[in-house]
Records
---
Amino acid sequence: MAAQHQTITLNNGVPMPILGFGVFQVPGEQTEQVVTDALAAGYRLIDTAASYGNEEAVGRAIAASGIPRDELFVTTKMWIQHTGEETARREFDRSLRKLGLDHLDLYLIHQPLGDYYSSWHAMEKLYAEGLIKAIGVSNFYPDRLVDLIQHNDIVPAVNQIETHPFFQRAGYQQLMRERGVQIESWGPFAEGRNDFFTNPVLTAIAAGHDRSVAQVVLRWLVQRDVVVIPKSVRPERMAQNLDVFDFALTGEEMTRIAALDTGASLFFDHHDPGMVAWLGDRRVD
Ligand code: NDP
């Protein structure tokens, strides 16, 4: 097995690649080529969402790749406007059709907003019917995650949340581990915010290993057992971002990176009423 196909095992026994590829903010007309390049580079986990508007392009690239379906791990996400039991099932069918697939590997509730309890019931049924290998959530803060676990049959397999050196989620990862929920990082490079790629601590560690800052951070996440899905439209960066399985960070380096944590999001606060309204008003086709 190629190193990049290292997997973790979800709470229902399903293996998931620890390092995959995300397609948020990849322009629609570029997505098919970008995903084709990512698959050629060796990625086998592709992470999209209904709200990214590029599921069809992802599907075309998958179909054209000729890679056997059971070697791929495809994730998509349900947007807030489609929460609800019947709507969720319809939306699942729509995503599956756009992706050109007969099942999904992972289906996520994109945000802890709207009628997501009803969506979860629909997803539990789709899972029982074998149409989804694993079901999970995204952007759930601890209170929402524990409440969902408390009042439903299936424990989410994954919670995909903002996780990077400036917002590390170590305590939350421990809580999720105790509850059987796999942490998956979005925005591993903080999309470059906070002078990410020139941070002095990260650049010093990178120089010591003759690696890039991106590689050090991906290695740091993988070493913490965090699933991660970096995005790049450039083939040389796609290859670079996969190439993190032949070196290791020392305990001392892990501690130096741990000290960069600010404990706060660089993007948005899900407890901000203005943001909740803005997200709730956002419509996707
Ligand atoms: P990332 O933190 O992955 O950052 C992507 C940025 O980093 C791009 O500007 C990219 O530029 C650049 N980059 C990539 N590789 C390198 C490198 N080796 N060296 C220098 N720069 C690099 O941001 P994302 O927000 O895209 O997060 C990753 C994925 O997580 C998304 O694509 C999506 O699948 C998921 N996500 C989920 C969210 C959710 O709410 N569930 C929210 C946000 C993201 P370039 O493309 O030009 O190389």
---
Amino acid sequence: MPNRAIIIGTGSALPSRLLTNRDLEAMVETSDEWIKTRTGIEQRYIVGEGETNSFLATRAAKNALEMAGVRPQELDLIIVGTLTPDTPMPSVACLVQKELGAKKAGAFDLSATCSGFIYGLSIADKFIRDNRKMKILVIGSEVLSRRVNWTDRTTCVLFGDGAGAAVVTGTKEDRGILSTHLHADGALGDLLTIKGLGTAHPVTMEMLELGWQYIQMQGREVFKHAVKALESVAWEALNANGWTTDQVDLLIAHQANMRILDFLREKLGLTTDKVFINIHKYGNTSAASIPIALDEANRSRLLLPGSKLLMVAFGGGFTWGSLAMRW
Ligand code: ACO
């Protein structure tokens, strides 16, 4: 039996400030009804005083390590999927490494937006196929509330902050990660951007007035591409493993919009109990959405030994990907 990557611990963390749709009604011209009908979101959590991306990522990591029974000093690698790091340098992964005291671990951030956790797991999978003794911490962590224009109702109602983590190691048993498929289409990047704050556009009054420090999105176009890409990458994973949709025990898809999730469920012919949903509680937390969902599904015992799990993600870039595993 070849080496297979398995997840032996999951964790998640949310910031302290709860922001409900009703709260947003007082901030922009919107309504609880509009947000719920168009997105399924009822509330989200955002960072308060002293809470940062690395703070959330470290908390999620500690929870995952505790479940796994792994000490930070045993970690070989820390990968953090994020588009909202504390600072460009040092990376969130290095800040987590310091906080955990994971002295032996290499550490880097990975920029694949909402697909960051799937991209991160696929890298961990490749390392572990070579060396099953490795212990790798994969995190998805975001503070999108700092990149949202709180006066733009077309985006500010959608996003939330949070972090999720998984401890990955190897086995010779017939379980674990079976396939990963990664995709991107940079030609469509302009549909979902944060144009400023990188090196292309230094901070100037003009840049700030254009609002390029914020997420800008052509929602309808993103929606159309998201549903198409998610469906096709889900079929790609199913076909690669010879799975039929009714063999899938749980689908964890990026929690971007309830209508996207409904569409995907219908296209794949899955029943509602097989599609994990928590978007109503957290909104779209980008790279954190899948690992938070994974942790909740794991802790509520929706994942049992042998369960067939399919994860699919889509996000800015565009990037998308899938991962199939036997739990
Ligand atoms: N409250 C009230 N009205 C609003 C709001 C709001 N928060 N936002 C937009 N509207 C208005 C618009 O101004 C428009 O009014 P008009 O008809 O008078 O011009 C009307 O509602 C319809 O707007 P649309 O943008 O056409 O609404 P749509 O049904 O497309 O829903 C949404 C918008 C929810 C953003 C949807 O397009 C979407 O979910 N897209 C996917 C984007 C996404 O999830 N991106 C996240 C990052 S990528 C990812 O994670 C997949």
---
Amino acid sequence: MAEDISKLPVLNVGIVGHIDHGKTTLLHALTGRFADVHSEELKRGITIKLGYADAILRKEGEGYNVKEGEAVRYLTFVDVPGHEMLMATMLSGAAIIDAAVLVIAANEGIKPQTREHLVALAAKGIKKVIIVQNKIDLVSKEVAMKNFEIIKDFVKGTVAEDAPVIPVSAQQGINVDMLLKELAEMEVPSRDIEGKPLFVVARSFDINRPGTKIDKLSGGVLGGALKRGKLKVGDEIEIKPGLSFKDKGVMKYETVRTKILSIRRGTYEVEEAGPGGSLAIETSLDMFLTKTDNLSGCVAGLVGELPEIVNRLKIKASHFSEVEGTETHEKIDDFRINDLLMLSVNTSISVGKVVNAKDEEVELDLNIPVVSFKGDSVGIARNVGGHWRLVGVGEVV
Ligand code: GDP
Ligand code: MG
């Protein structure tokens, strides 16, 4: 029988860090599951899209595991790509998490995306971080101790300054229970369940297998998280900016209206859901509209309750002193008029041209409209050597 998870506190945890440091392996060690793996990912051995997995955290005696004992928490996980070219995807993933596990391989130490992901967490307002010093089986005790000191030094003055550092071998399952204990004891953020529902879409899918009979077809599915409010089966929702189309050479966006047919939290079906944890919402939309992440970056809410989309956005912005995500540590210039910047607002990614820059206030004309709220945190990237690199943070004003 399916467990009733509706009474359990939920935590959505992102697994972040440099490529090959063992994020996907750790997720498997934590949950016993592999996040859904796409054929391209199998072929290349790297995570390309956001992956999901879930587990019920259980207490048995003094220890924690995901198999036996009293259910104490429901954990959902987001596996993000560590590849430098997939920074935008990482930022979308970071938009839906409550906390992060930063994976650092003990044999490699701090790498560009270790630094960049840590600043990305700050840019997305994530303050709860646990550090996993992974691949501990590959290094001597001396190297592990040295690496530990380097990590402690690295996090000084950041959101992870007081984060616990847990030595782990994800591959051999060593100390994974220590990590579960930290996740069990981590404070669950307070949730706004009264507000107007706001669902941020990180992925969208067609979950039907080829050849499914028409009367058995599922509707289009949205994957993401509720930032506030509650949604339930039967609710009429709208999705913005929605579908894009070209009208006389100009991109336009059309709000999509649909109905919620079912809601899943990981492997569990629920009638109603609030904030915390990732969700998959099955809609009455044709799956053609939701396939291949067609609606990722959108937001969904009850019909008539979402703000208008905007093409011009004003943010209070600041930049770092140097680029974190490269080996070459380029200096970062001030934002100025005509700068092209990539913004990450909630799960959406948009490129904008700076039209006004005065002191801390930067105004941009965006190529893709966003739905934003005052105070939303914004990740700001600039093209450095052909890739979007995170260069600063902002807040919608
Ligand atoms: P990701 O890119 O961060 O998701 O890294 P993966 O989980 O794909 O792991 C990259 C490689 O490191 C794979 O070959 C894993 O088997 C290996 N790996 C992961 N964790 C460990 C570990 O704790 N010890 C050792 N020796 N290898 C590991
Ligand atoms: Mg991976």
---
Amino acid sequence: MTPDNSLIQQTYADYRSHFGGEPEVAAFAPGRIEVLGNHTDYNEGYVLSAAIDLGTCFLAARSPGSRCALYAPDVGEEDVFDAGSFSPCDTHRWANYIKGVIAGLRSHSAIGGLVGCFRSNLPIASGLSSSAALEISSALAIAHLFNAEIPPLELARIGQSAEHHFAGVRCGLLDQVTSLFGKQDELVMMDFRTLAIQTVPLSRDACFVVCNTGVKHTLVDSAYNERRAKCEEAATFFNSVLPRPIGALRDVTWAEWEQHSKAMDPDAARRSAHVIGENERVLKGMDLLRHGQLPEFGQLMFSSHASSREYFENSCAELDYIVEQASSLNGVLGARLSGGGFGGSALLLVHERSAADVSRKIADLYAGRFGKHCEVRRVSASAGAHML
Ligand code: GLA
């Protein structure tokens, strides 16, 4: 699916009215859904994901000297800094993602002054990776602007490094890789140890519905970093008790977890149970998809959510309610939280013919239970980031 034309036109209109003249480059990067494999990426495991038909459009042009000006029309803010010296700032947090990208690009190529403007149709903080879409669209556009030839995996790392050093989130590579390697009507399967990527078609009979709870845990970034630290602690534990080197939780089997978990710190035991189970589910899920066994695949999504709820404790009442209701609706194959968790979106895999009906029912049930609106929309597996 091509990016929404009205998004692109609106971004051009904003660019022209703010900076005057025409941009030299334009790029689009999509958000993503995480279909199976939760918090497995930074544990060197496996994830099935897809780029979606919502994303960010970034326009830029060179400007004399080293002055950089970034404009975010939807909040009406401009951030101005020097390309040679800048650091993350608290006033325009959205600019930190782009500054982090520029810092990463500078280690490959000379980056001078520029003006940039972006717009997105991704809901912010909804678990659909609006920050990765901003990083990747700006990275592609600015790399092009300064003729820097950077391989896609390196661009993904530059986006990740912006999160680590300019936003304070020790995320894995999932969001950036999916935004770059998405393919229309296909899921992306990535092995985060070898960094091998393959895509697998999604049956035409099925589609995805995203339900954005609008909930954002106030300490979501620190909770994410804390979960990651517990996973690393668990890997260190397994390395000390198993007879072979354990580089990451990816190397531990469920049978080994069962054998040793009683001797572990209880938090590290629960967090690692989730990751180890998720890795096994993704491998099984790939097999099921290849054989067209969608109902069985959907059951893995429900198991994944139960594991998030019980072991990783990154769900919330709103997500649990949606997944539980979805499980008894006709036409729903599977449902789970998608992405970091602690709020954000639930992802439903539904029969194509039931998508409209399921969406309406979930929105009504949610409003009845919580007295607030839940944004429910159908999304399609789409192509990855590209120049426009
Ligand atoms: C966020 C992070 C990803 C990944 C997911 C959870 O989206 O940015 O790297 O860890 O959470 O699977």
